[in-house]
Amino acid sequence: MTDYPAPPTAHEHAFFAIHSHFSERRPSTELTIYKALRRDYPEYEVVATKVTFCHLLSFVDYGLATATPIHGNNHDISREYKPPTQRNKKKNADGKLKDKVRVGLWEYVWEGNEYLYYHVEYDANSYGSKEIVVFLLSRKWPVGATPETTPEAITAASEAAKERIDKLLMAVGKWSADVHSEIYVFDNTTWRKDRNLYLSVMGTKWSDVILSPALKDGIINDITTFFDSEEMYTSLNIPWKRGIILHGTPGNGKTLSIKALINTLQTGERKIPSLYVKNLDNCSYGPKHSIREIFNRARTLAPCLLIFEDLDSLVTDKIRAYFLNEVDGLESNDGICMIGSTNHLNKLDPAIAKRPSRFDRKYHFGLPELAEREAYCAYWGKKLEGKEMVQVTAQMAGVLAGFTEGFSFAYLKELFLASLVAVATKTEVEQAAGEAEVEEEGGSASSDSTVVVEKADAVMEGGADKAKIETPAVEKKEKEKVVVKPISEDEIPEELKGNVFFRVLCQQITSLRREMDDKGDEGKAEATYGREFIAGDDEDDSD
Known about the structure:
six-stranded antiparallel beta sheet, 17 strands, ATPase_AAA_core, alpha/beta, Rossmann fold, single chain, RNA binding, 543 residues
Protein backbone atom coordinates (compact mmCIF):
# COMPACT_ATOMS: atom_id res chain seq x y z
CA MET A 1 0.00 0.00 0.00
CA THR A 2 1.46 3.37 -0.98
CA ASP A 3 1.54 6.16 1.63
CA TYR A 4 0.62 9.49 0.08
CA PRO A 5 1.60 12.71 1.82
CA ALA A 6 -1.22 14.44 3.64
CA PRO A 7 -2.67 17.41 1.77
CA PRO A 8 -1.55 20.78 3.11
CA THR A 9 -3.68 22.41 5.76
CA ALA A 10 -5.31 25.77 5.17
CA HIS A 11 -2.60 27.43 7.30
CA GLU A 12 0.18 25.78 5.27
CA HIS A 13 -1.44 26.55 1.93
CA ALA A 14 -1.96 30.22 2.88
CA PHE A 15 1.64 30.56 4.06
CA PHE A 16 2.98 29.04 0.84
CA ALA A 17 0.84 31.50 -1.16
CA ILE A 18 2.22 34.45 0.82
CA HIS A 19 5.76 33.11 0.49
CA SER A 20 5.32 32.71 -3.26
CA HIS A 21 4.00 36.27 -3.54
CA PHE A 22 7.11 37.75 -1.90
CA SER A 23 9.35 35.64 -4.14
CA GLU A 24 8.02 37.27 -7.29
CA ARG A 25 7.21 40.73 -8.60
CA ARG A 26 3.99 41.82 -6.96
CA PRO A 27 1.44 44.50 -7.96
CA SER A 28 -0.58 44.51 -4.72
CA THR A 29 0.42 42.69 -1.58
CA GLU A 30 -2.88 43.25 0.26
CA LEU A 31 -5.00 42.01 -2.64
CA THR A 32 -2.84 38.94 -3.17
CA ILE A 33 -2.97 37.91 0.47
CA TYR A 34 -6.67 38.69 0.72
CA LYS A 35 -7.43 36.43 -2.26
CA ALA A 36 -5.23 33.63 -0.84
CA LEU A 37 -6.96 33.72 2.53
CA ARG A 38 -10.45 33.74 1.03
CA ARG A 39 -9.49 30.75 -1.10
CA ASP A 40 -7.93 28.76 1.75
CA TYR A 41 -10.48 29.68 4.45
CA PRO A 42 -13.89 29.48 2.73
CA GLU A 43 -15.60 28.94 6.09
CA TYR A 44 -14.25 32.29 7.41
CA GLU A 45 -15.01 35.93 6.70
CA VAL A 46 -11.77 37.85 5.98
CA VAL A 47 -11.21 41.54 6.80
CA ALA A 48 -7.96 43.48 6.23
CA THR A 49 -6.86 46.46 8.33
CA LYS A 50 -3.76 48.47 9.34
CA VAL A 51 -1.96 48.67 12.67
CA THR A 52 -2.04 52.48 12.71
CA PHE A 53 -5.01 52.53 15.07
CA CYS A 54 -5.34 48.80 15.62
CA HIS A 55 -2.60 47.46 17.91
CA LEU A 56 -4.06 43.98 18.42
CA LEU A 57 -1.02 42.50 20.19
CA SER A 58 -0.60 45.54 22.45
CA PHE A 59 -4.26 45.03 23.39
CA VAL A 60 -3.18 41.54 24.48
CA ASP A 61 -0.17 42.88 26.40
CA TYR A 62 -2.52 44.91 28.59
CA GLY A 63 -4.58 41.78 29.37
CA LEU A 64 -7.63 42.81 27.33
CA ALA A 65 -7.55 39.78 24.99
CA THR A 66 -5.52 36.59 24.45
CA ALA A 67 -3.42 35.54 21.46
CA THR A 68 -1.96 32.05 21.07
CA PRO A 69 0.62 31.51 18.30
CA ILE A 70 -0.45 28.74 15.92
CA HIS A 71 1.88 29.47 13.00
CA GLY A 72 3.96 26.34 13.69
CA ASN A 73 6.62 25.99 11.02
CA ASN A 74 4.72 28.24 8.64
CA HIS A 75 5.99 31.65 9.60
CA ASP A 76 8.64 34.27 8.94
CA ILE A 77 9.92 35.22 12.38
CA SER A 78 13.37 36.11 13.68
CA ARG A 79 14.23 35.35 17.29
CA GLU A 80 16.29 38.38 18.31
CA TYR A 81 18.39 38.92 21.43
CA LYS A 82 18.30 42.27 23.18
CA PRO A 83 21.21 42.71 25.61
CA PRO A 84 20.62 44.39 28.97
CA THR A 85 21.82 47.92 29.59
CA GLN A 86 24.36 48.42 32.32
CA ARG A 87 21.74 50.14 34.45
CA ASN A 88 19.18 47.33 34.38
CA LYS A 89 21.51 44.35 34.70
CA LYS A 90 20.30 43.63 38.23
CA LYS A 91 16.69 43.36 37.06
CA ASN A 92 17.47 41.67 33.76
CA ALA A 93 20.94 40.19 33.97
CA ASP A 94 20.60 37.93 30.92
CA GLY A 95 18.85 40.26 28.51
CA LYS A 96 15.72 39.35 26.54
CA LEU A 97 14.67 37.30 23.54
CA LYS A 98 12.01 38.88 21.34
CA ASP A 99 10.25 37.83 18.17
CA LYS A 100 10.58 39.99 15.08
CA VAL A 101 7.50 38.91 13.14
CA ARG A 102 7.16 39.39 9.39
CA VAL A 103 4.54 36.67 8.78
CA GLY A 104 2.73 35.08 11.72
CA LEU A 105 -0.61 33.60 12.75
CA TRP A 106 -2.41 33.67 16.10
CA GLU A 107 -5.63 32.35 17.54
CA TYR A 108 -7.13 35.52 18.98
CA VAL A 109 -9.88 35.49 21.63
CA TRP A 110 -11.83 38.53 22.82
CA GLU A 111 -15.07 38.53 24.82
CA GLY A 112 -15.60 34.85 24.05
CA ASN A 113 -15.28 35.30 20.30
CA GLU A 114 -12.53 33.46 18.44
CA TYR A 115 -10.61 34.87 15.49
CA LEU A 116 -7.61 34.05 13.34
CA TYR A 117 -5.11 36.90 13.23
CA TYR A 118 -2.60 37.10 10.36
CA HIS A 119 0.22 39.63 10.69
CA VAL A 120 2.27 40.45 7.57
CA GLU A 121 5.14 42.97 7.43
CA TYR A 122 6.95 43.83 4.21
CA ASP A 123 9.03 46.48 2.46
CA ALA A 124 6.57 48.80 0.79
CA ASN A 125 9.12 50.28 -1.62
CA SER A 126 12.76 50.36 -2.61
CA TYR A 127 13.53 52.89 0.15
CA GLY A 128 12.92 50.25 2.82
CA SER A 129 9.76 51.75 4.30
CA LYS A 130 7.89 49.09 6.25
CA GLU A 131 4.22 48.32 5.77
CA ILE A 132 2.22 46.14 8.14
CA VAL A 133 -1.11 44.70 7.10
CA VAL A 134 -3.40 42.76 9.45
CA PHE A 135 -6.04 40.20 8.46
CA LEU A 136 -8.76 39.09 10.84
CA LEU A 137 -10.76 35.95 10.12
CA SER A 138 -14.03 35.05 11.86
CA ARG A 139 -15.94 31.80 11.34
CA LYS A 140 -19.26 32.01 9.56
CA TRP A 141 -20.51 28.78 11.17
CA PRO A 142 -19.48 26.98 14.39
CA VAL A 143 -16.99 24.12 14.06
CA GLY A 144 -18.77 20.91 13.07
CA ALA A 145 -21.99 22.66 12.08
CA THR A 146 -23.53 21.95 8.69
CA PRO A 147 -23.69 25.25 6.85
CA GLU A 148 -26.89 26.26 5.20
CA THR A 149 -26.42 26.79 1.51
CA THR A 150 -29.28 29.13 0.81
CA PRO A 151 -28.20 32.58 -0.36
CA GLU A 152 -30.02 34.19 2.59
CA ALA A 153 -28.25 31.94 5.13
CA ILE A 154 -24.83 32.52 3.57
CA THR A 155 -25.35 36.28 3.54
CA ALA A 156 -26.57 36.31 7.15
CA ALA A 157 -23.57 34.21 8.31
CA SER A 158 -21.13 36.50 6.50
CA GLU A 159 -22.70 39.63 7.98
CA ALA A 160 -22.60 38.16 11.50
CA ALA A 161 -18.90 37.29 11.09
CA LYS A 162 -18.12 40.77 9.79
CA GLU A 163 -19.97 42.29 12.72
CA ARG A 164 -17.85 40.31 15.19
CA ILE A 165 -14.70 41.55 13.47
CA ASP A 166 -15.97 45.14 13.43
CA LYS A 167 -16.73 44.99 17.17
CA LEU A 168 -13.14 43.86 17.85
CA LEU A 169 -11.66 46.50 15.54
CA MET A 170 -13.77 49.20 17.18
CA ALA A 171 -12.69 48.16 20.69
CA VAL A 172 -9.00 47.85 19.79
CA GLY A 173 -9.07 51.02 17.70
CA LYS A 174 -10.66 53.09 20.47
CA TRP A 175 -8.15 51.74 22.97
CA SER A 176 -5.18 52.23 20.59
CA ALA A 177 -6.09 55.85 19.87
CA ASP A 178 -5.80 56.76 23.55
CA VAL A 179 -2.47 57.10 25.34
CA HIS A 180 -1.83 54.71 28.20
CA SER A 181 1.24 55.91 30.11
CA GLU A 182 2.90 56.70 26.75
CA ILE A 183 3.94 59.62 24.59
CA TYR A 184 3.40 59.74 20.84
CA VAL A 185 6.70 60.20 18.95
CA PHE A 186 6.89 60.94 15.22
CA ASP A 187 10.05 59.29 13.92
CA ASN A 188 11.05 57.69 10.63
CA THR A 189 7.84 58.60 8.76
CA THR A 190 5.35 57.34 11.33
CA TRP A 191 3.89 57.76 14.80
CA ARG A 192 4.76 55.34 17.58
CA LYS A 193 3.93 55.17 21.26
CA ASP A 194 6.96 55.44 23.53
CA ARG A 195 6.51 54.21 27.10
CA ASN A 196 10.18 54.64 28.05
CA LEU A 197 10.04 58.31 27.11
CA TYR A 198 6.89 58.68 29.18
CA LEU A 199 8.60 57.17 32.24
CA SER A 200 11.56 59.50 31.73
CA VAL A 201 9.37 62.59 31.44
CA MET A 202 7.29 61.60 34.47
CA GLY A 203 10.46 62.02 36.54
CA THR A 204 10.57 65.74 35.71
CA LYS A 205 8.46 68.15 37.75
CA TRP A 206 8.30 71.92 37.77
CA SER A 207 10.14 71.87 41.11
CA ASP A 208 13.15 70.56 39.13
CA VAL A 209 13.07 73.56 36.77
CA ILE A 210 15.01 76.58 38.02
CA LEU A 211 13.83 79.69 36.18
CA SER A 212 12.85 83.20 37.09
CA PRO A 213 9.37 83.08 38.70
CA ALA A 214 7.95 85.36 36.00
CA LEU A 215 9.17 83.10 33.17
CA LYS A 216 8.09 79.84 34.80
CA ASP A 217 4.67 81.11 35.89
CA GLY A 218 4.10 82.70 32.48
CA ILE A 219 4.65 79.43 30.62
CA ILE A 220 2.58 77.33 33.06
CA ASN A 221 -0.34 79.77 33.10
CA ASP A 222 -0.26 80.24 29.33
CA ILE A 223 -0.57 76.51 28.58
CA THR A 224 -2.92 75.44 31.38
CA THR A 225 -5.21 78.42 30.77
CA PHE A 226 -5.46 77.50 27.10
CA PHE A 227 -6.68 73.97 27.77
CA ASP A 228 -9.19 75.24 30.34
CA SER A 229 -10.62 77.92 28.04
CA GLU A 230 -12.42 76.10 25.25
CA GLU A 231 -15.78 77.66 26.15
CA MET A 232 -14.31 81.16 26.25
CA TYR A 233 -12.70 80.76 22.80
CA THR A 234 -15.99 79.40 21.42
CA SER A 235 -18.05 82.22 22.94
CA LEU A 236 -15.73 84.79 21.36
CA ASN A 237 -15.92 82.97 18.02
CA ILE A 238 -12.13 82.60 17.74
CA PRO A 239 -10.20 79.41 16.88
CA TRP A 240 -9.26 77.42 19.97
CA LYS A 241 -5.58 76.98 19.16
CA ARG A 242 -2.34 78.30 20.57
CA GLY A 243 1.36 78.41 19.69
CA ILE A 244 4.39 79.43 21.75
CA ILE A 245 8.12 79.49 21.06
CA LEU A 246 10.81 78.84 23.67
CA HIS A 247 14.09 80.36 22.51
CA GLY A 248 17.47 81.35 23.85
CA THR A 249 20.99 80.22 24.62
CA PRO A 250 21.49 76.44 24.71
CA GLY A 251 21.52 74.82 28.12
CA ASN A 252 19.10 77.11 29.95
CA GLY A 253 16.00 75.04 30.54
CA LYS A 254 13.94 74.81 27.34
CA THR A 255 13.87 71.02 27.10
CA LEU A 256 13.41 70.58 30.83
CA SER A 257 10.45 72.99 30.77
CA ILE A 258 8.83 70.98 27.96
CA LYS A 259 9.26 67.78 29.96
CA ALA A 260 7.68 69.38 33.01
CA LEU A 261 4.77 70.60 30.85
CA ILE A 262 4.19 67.09 29.47
CA ASN A 263 4.17 65.71 33.01
CA THR A 264 1.72 68.35 34.22
CA LEU A 265 -0.71 67.84 31.34
CA GLN A 266 -0.66 64.04 31.20
CA THR A 267 -1.10 63.62 34.94
CA GLY A 268 -3.75 66.33 35.28
CA GLU A 269 -7.48 65.81 35.55
CA ARG A 270 -8.03 65.99 31.76
CA LYS A 271 -4.89 63.98 30.85
CA ILE A 272 -3.90 65.98 27.78
CA PRO A 273 -1.78 63.78 25.44
CA SER A 274 1.59 64.95 24.13
CA LEU A 275 2.90 64.43 20.59
CA TYR A 276 6.64 64.88 20.07
CA VAL A 277 8.06 65.41 16.57
CA LYS A 278 11.58 64.00 16.44
CA ASN A 279 12.21 64.45 12.71
CA LEU A 280 10.47 64.88 9.36
CA ASP A 281 12.65 62.42 7.45
CA ASN A 282 10.68 60.55 4.82
CA CYS A 283 12.63 59.00 1.98
CA SER A 284 9.50 57.63 0.32
CA TYR A 285 7.23 60.66 0.11
CA GLY A 286 9.27 63.57 1.44
CA PRO A 287 8.83 65.81 4.51
CA LYS A 288 5.55 67.29 3.23
CA HIS A 289 3.93 63.89 3.71
CA SER A 290 5.34 63.78 7.24
CA ILE A 291 3.87 67.20 8.07
CA ARG A 292 0.47 66.04 6.83
CA GLU A 293 0.65 62.91 8.98
CA ILE A 294 1.72 64.95 12.02
CA PHE A 295 -1.21 67.36 11.87
CA ASN A 296 -3.73 64.66 10.99
CA ARG A 297 -2.81 62.77 14.15
CA ALA A 298 -2.82 65.96 16.25
CA ARG A 299 -6.33 66.82 15.00
CA THR A 300 -7.48 63.31 15.87
CA LEU A 301 -6.10 63.45 19.41
CA ALA A 302 -6.97 67.11 20.15
CA PRO A 303 -6.93 68.61 22.69
CA CYS A 304 -3.23 67.84 22.72
CA LEU A 305 0.25 69.32 23.04
CA LEU A 306 2.22 69.21 19.75
CA ILE A 307 5.96 69.67 20.26
CA PHE A 308 8.51 70.72 17.60
CA GLU A 309 11.93 70.74 19.23
CA ASP A 310 14.60 72.67 17.30
CA LEU A 311 11.93 74.19 15.08
CA ASP A 312 14.48 76.03 12.92
CA SER A 313 16.05 72.69 11.91
CA LEU A 314 12.76 70.93 11.26
CA VAL A 315 11.00 73.57 9.14
CA THR A 316 13.31 74.39 6.25
CA ASP A 317 12.66 76.85 3.42
CA LYS A 318 11.52 74.05 1.10
CA ILE A 319 8.62 73.03 3.33
CA ARG A 320 7.88 76.32 5.12
CA ALA A 321 4.81 77.16 3.00
CA TYR A 322 3.37 73.67 3.42
CA PHE A 323 3.95 73.80 7.18
CA LEU A 324 2.25 77.19 7.47
CA ASN A 325 -0.71 75.95 5.48
CA GLU A 326 -1.20 73.12 7.99
CA VAL A 327 -0.82 75.54 10.91
CA ASP A 328 -3.46 78.06 9.82
CA GLY A 329 -4.97 76.80 6.58
CA LEU A 330 -8.56 75.79 5.95
CA GLU A 331 -8.58 72.78 8.26
CA SER A 332 -9.45 73.28 11.91
CA ASN A 333 -6.71 72.94 14.51
CA ASP A 334 -9.04 73.42 17.46
CA GLY A 335 -7.57 72.08 20.68
CA ILE A 336 -3.97 71.97 19.42
CA CYS A 337 -1.34 73.82 21.44
CA MET A 338 1.98 73.91 19.58
CA ILE A 339 5.33 74.41 21.29
CA GLY A 340 8.40 75.13 19.21
CA SER A 341 11.87 75.45 20.70
CA THR A 342 14.96 76.93 19.08
CA ASN A 343 18.44 78.08 20.00
CA HIS A 344 18.43 80.47 17.02
CA LEU A 345 15.31 82.60 16.83
CA ASN A 346 16.90 84.70 14.07
CA LYS A 347 17.03 81.62 11.82
CA LEU A 348 13.27 81.18 11.94
CA ASP A 349 11.33 82.67 9.06
CA PRO A 350 9.45 85.82 10.15
CA ALA A 351 6.26 84.18 8.87
CA ILE A 352 6.68 81.69 11.73
CA ALA A 353 8.37 83.71 14.46
CA LYS A 354 6.64 87.08 14.03
CA ARG A 355 3.11 86.19 12.98
CA PRO A 356 0.50 85.93 15.74
CA SER A 357 -2.08 83.13 15.32
CA ARG A 358 0.74 80.78 14.37
CA PHE A 359 3.10 81.10 17.31
CA ASP A 360 1.49 83.75 19.48
CA ARG A 361 4.02 84.17 22.29
CA LYS A 362 7.78 83.88 22.60
CA TYR A 363 9.55 83.10 25.89
CA HIS A 364 13.26 83.88 26.13
CA PHE A 365 15.57 81.58 28.09
CA GLY A 366 18.67 83.66 28.78
CA LEU A 367 21.64 83.02 31.03
CA PRO A 368 20.51 82.71 34.66
CA GLU A 369 20.81 85.75 36.90
CA LEU A 370 22.35 85.64 40.37
CA ALA A 371 19.09 84.61 42.06
CA GLU A 372 18.53 81.71 39.62
CA ARG A 373 22.14 80.52 39.99
CA GLU A 374 21.81 80.56 43.76
CA ALA A 375 18.49 78.67 43.54
CA TYR A 376 20.12 76.09 41.28
CA CYS A 377 23.03 75.57 43.68
CA ALA A 378 20.53 75.24 46.54
CA TYR A 379 18.64 72.68 44.42
CA TRP A 380 21.79 70.58 44.30
CA GLY A 381 22.16 71.09 48.02
CA LYS A 382 18.80 69.35 48.49
CA LYS A 383 19.81 66.56 46.10
CA LEU A 384 23.00 65.96 48.10
CA GLU A 385 21.34 66.33 51.50
CA GLY A 386 22.64 63.79 53.99
CA LYS A 387 25.87 63.09 52.07
CA GLU A 388 28.47 64.42 54.47
CA MET A 389 31.45 64.74 52.10
CA VAL A 390 29.59 66.76 49.49
CA GLN A 391 27.14 68.92 51.39
CA VAL A 392 26.17 72.26 49.86
CA THR A 393 25.17 74.77 52.51
CA ALA A 394 23.11 77.88 51.94
CA GLN A 395 26.28 79.96 52.33
CA MET A 396 28.07 77.85 49.72
CA ALA A 397 25.15 78.23 47.32
CA GLY A 398 25.31 82.01 47.62
CA VAL A 399 29.07 82.19 47.14
CA LEU A 400 29.05 79.76 44.21
CA ALA A 401 26.31 81.82 42.54
CA GLY A 402 28.58 84.84 42.71
CA PHE A 403 31.52 82.92 41.24
CA THR A 404 29.53 81.57 38.27
CA GLU A 405 28.40 84.69 36.47
CA GLY A 406 27.91 83.91 32.78
CA PHE A 407 27.29 80.20 33.42
CA SER A 408 24.30 78.55 31.77
CA PHE A 409 22.32 75.92 33.66
CA ALA A 410 24.12 73.31 31.56
CA TYR A 411 27.48 74.58 32.78
CA LEU A 412 26.20 74.74 36.37
CA LYS A 413 25.10 71.14 36.07
CA GLU A 414 28.52 70.19 34.72
CA LEU A 415 30.11 72.05 37.65
CA PHE A 416 28.40 69.78 40.17
CA LEU A 417 28.76 66.58 38.17
CA ALA A 418 32.48 67.13 37.55
CA SER A 419 33.04 68.00 41.21
CA LEU A 420 31.23 64.88 42.38
CA VAL A 421 33.30 62.77 40.00
CA ALA A 422 36.42 64.42 41.41
CA VAL A 423 35.31 63.52 44.92
CA ALA A 424 34.63 59.96 43.84
CA THR A 425 38.09 59.59 42.27
CA LYS A 426 39.70 61.51 45.18
CA THR A 427 42.45 62.83 42.91
CA GLU A 428 41.38 66.46 42.92
CA VAL A 429 40.16 66.26 46.50
CA GLU A 430 43.62 65.35 47.70
CA GLN A 431 45.06 68.10 45.52
CA ALA A 432 42.63 70.64 46.97
CA ALA A 433 43.26 69.53 50.54
CA GLY A 434 47.02 69.76 50.07
CA GLU A 435 47.11 73.18 48.49
CA ALA A 436 49.00 75.67 50.61
CA GLU A 437 47.54 78.65 48.86
CA VAL A 438 45.59 79.69 45.81
CA GLU A 439 47.14 82.06 43.29
CA GLU A 440 46.48 85.64 44.26
CA GLU A 441 44.64 88.08 42.03
CA GLY A 442 47.17 89.45 39.54
CA GLY A 443 49.63 86.61 40.12
CA SER A 444 51.30 84.84 37.26
CA ALA A 445 49.08 82.37 35.49
CA SER A 446 50.25 78.87 34.68
CA SER A 447 50.52 77.88 31.06
CA ASP A 448 47.21 76.01 31.18
CA SER A 449 45.38 79.03 32.59
CA THR A 450 45.37 80.86 29.31
CA VAL A 451 43.42 80.76 26.11
CA VAL A 452 44.61 82.08 22.79
CA VAL A 453 42.62 84.83 21.10
CA GLU A 454 43.39 85.77 17.51
CA LYS A 455 43.42 89.46 16.69
CA ALA A 456 41.72 90.73 13.57
CA ASP A 457 43.85 91.13 10.48
CA ALA A 458 45.83 94.36 10.58
CA VAL A 459 45.56 96.46 7.41
CA MET A 460 47.05 99.92 6.90
CA GLU A 461 45.94 102.03 3.97
CA GLY A 462 47.53 105.33 2.89
CA GLY A 463 46.39 108.02 0.48
CA ALA A 464 46.55 107.85 -3.29
CA ASP A 465 50.30 108.45 -3.25
CA LYS A 466 50.99 105.92 -0.54
CA ALA A 467 51.41 102.22 -1.02
CA LYS A 468 48.93 99.90 0.67
CA ILE A 469 50.69 98.04 3.46
CA GLU A 470 49.22 94.72 4.53
CA THR A 471 50.58 92.61 7.34
CA PRO A 472 52.08 89.35 6.04
CA ALA A 473 49.83 86.31 6.46
CA VAL A 474 52.06 84.75 9.08
CA GLU A 475 52.05 87.90 11.18
CA LYS A 476 48.33 88.62 10.77
CA LYS A 477 47.32 86.15 13.47
CA GLU A 478 49.14 87.89 16.26
CA LYS A 479 48.36 85.98 19.43
CA GLU A 480 47.40 87.56 22.65
CA LYS A 481 47.11 85.65 25.92
CA VAL A 482 44.00 86.24 27.97
CA VAL A 483 44.42 85.02 31.53
CA VAL A 484 41.61 83.08 33.17
CA LYS A 485 42.51 83.56 36.81
CA PRO A 486 41.69 81.06 39.52
CA ILE A 487 39.48 82.13 42.40
CA SER A 488 41.75 83.92 44.84
CA GLU A 489 42.06 83.13 48.53
CA ASP A 490 40.66 86.55 49.40
CA GLU A 491 37.40 85.76 47.57
CA ILE A 492 36.73 82.69 49.70
CA PRO A 493 34.88 83.29 53.00
CA GLU A 494 36.88 82.29 56.07
CA GLU A 495 34.33 79.64 57.07
CA LEU A 496 34.68 77.84 53.73
CA LYS A 497 38.47 77.81 53.38
CA GLY A 498 38.74 74.43 55.05
CA ASN A 499 35.84 72.88 53.11
CA VAL A 500 37.42 70.39 50.70
CA PHE A 501 34.34 69.97 48.51
CA PHE A 502 34.01 73.74 48.16
CA ARG A 503 37.64 73.95 47.01
CA VAL A 504 36.97 71.25 44.42
CA LEU A 505 33.99 73.27 43.20
CA CYS A 506 36.21 76.34 42.90
CA GLN A 507 38.75 74.38 40.86
CA GLN A 508 36.01 73.22 38.52
CA ILE A 509 34.68 76.78 38.16
CA THR A 510 38.12 77.89 36.97
CA SER A 511 38.32 74.95 34.57
CA LEU A 512 34.86 75.69 33.14
CA ARG A 513 35.70 79.38 32.76
CA ARG A 514 38.64 78.38 30.56
CA GLU A 515 36.41 76.12 28.51
CA MET A 516 33.79 78.81 28.07
CA ASP A 517 36.38 81.38 26.95
CA ASP A 518 37.93 78.83 24.64
CA LYS A 519 34.57 78.25 22.93
CA GLY A 520 34.45 81.88 21.94
CA ASP A 521 31.09 81.83 20.21
CA GLU A 522 27.64 80.34 20.45
CA GLY A 523 28.27 77.96 17.58
CA LYS A 524 31.08 76.22 19.41
CA ALA A 525 29.17 76.15 22.67
CA GLU A 526 26.25 74.55 20.89
CA ALA A 527 28.46 71.68 19.81
CA THR A 528 28.56 70.66 23.47
CA TYR A 529 25.24 71.79 24.86
CA GLY A 530 22.92 72.38 21.92
CA ARG A 531 20.18 70.19 20.44
CA GLU A 532 19.37 68.04 23.46
CA PHE A 533 16.38 66.03 22.27
CA ILE A 534 13.62 65.16 24.67
CA ALA A 535 13.67 61.65 23.32
CA GLY A 536 17.42 61.33 23.42
CA ASP A 537 18.41 62.73 26.82
CA ASP A 538 16.15 61.27 29.46
CA GLU A 539 18.12 62.56 32.42
CA ASP A 540 18.98 66.07 31.36
CA ASP A 541 18.09 68.83 33.78
CA SER A 542 19.71 71.69 31.96
CA ASP A 543 18.01 72.37 28.62
